[in-house]
Design brief:
Helix content is 10%, strand content 37%. The chain is mainly β and 143 residues long. Strand 4 and strand 5 form a beta hairpin. It starts with a strand and ends with a strand.
């Protein structure tokens, strides 16, 4: 078994809606419009293209479980998905967890067990507070 962890931080914004039904996104951008219904955190201090090469290699395996743990205020939740040979991790702005199998340079994981609309409303309410720190942890586990 191989496991890697990486922690980073994003921040809440008053335009966080969190009602998208197929994706969850964190972005390094400084702003958020109400159209970004999947974006739950801004000003992320990590992007897909800055992850270590050993993590990127783990993400290329369908046997890799990818966990995104999110904590804001007193609330915490995990999104669990999978790696895939098509994940490139080239994007320098966004990371997107997808419930589908769609892959692009922004895709963090596919076949995720939750989208933004599935997150607890208590957690989303915390993420709607401007400048609320969102502690994020990515865990990559290959059996």
């Amino acid at each position: 078994m191989d496991m890697r962890r990486v922690s980073f931080r994003a921040y809440g914004h008053d335009n966080v809606i969190g009602n998208h039904r197929t994706t969850v996104e964190l972005t390094s951008e400084e702003f958020l419009t109400p159209k970004g219904t999947c974006i739950i955190g801004i000003r992320s201090d990590m992007t897909l293209n800055t992850l270590d090469d050993d993590i990127k290699k783990l993400a290329l395996s369908e046997n890799t479980k990818i966990i995104l743990r999110l904590t804001a205020g007193d609330f915490s939740e995990e999104i669990v998905g999978h790696g895939s040979p098509g994940l490139t991790y080239v994007d320098g702005i966004s990371m997107v967890a997808r419930t589908s199998t769609y892959e692009c340079g922004r895709t963090l994981m596919i076949r995720a067990d939750k989208a933004a609309s599935d997150l607890s409303r208590e957690l989303v309410n915390q993420m709607q507070k401007p400048d609320m720190p969102i502690d994020c942890e990515l865990i990559f586990i290959t059996e």
